[in-house]
Amino acid sequence: MQNNPLSLCFDDLGTEQDSVNYFGTIVKPMSDLLLERYSVFTILGKITHITTNLAPNSLKERYGELIADRFREMFNVITLLGDSRRK
After folding, report:
1. Smallest Cα–Cα separation from 80: which of 51, 48, 49, 58?
2. Is the pLDDT of residue 36 over 90?
3. Which of these, 26, 43, 50, 53, is most buried using a 10 Å CB contact count?
4. 61, 52 in Cβ contact below 8 A?
């Protein structure tokens, strides 16, 4: 098996628990993962897809300026307006 990162999709970004206690240390796993995926994107060209109901300013508040800045490079924003498409 190769040690080669894959393209990934994270569905409903922002609904996960923001931080967790890891042996007494508060960590933000999704923030860390998104920063790592930025490195995978810039070095290996592997794509990360996300879906979210959060507006760009809400993503910035939740994940911070550093990650929000990288989002602008990593993602194309497609806004779907109208009624929910979930059934």
Report:
1. 51
2. yes
3. 50
4. no
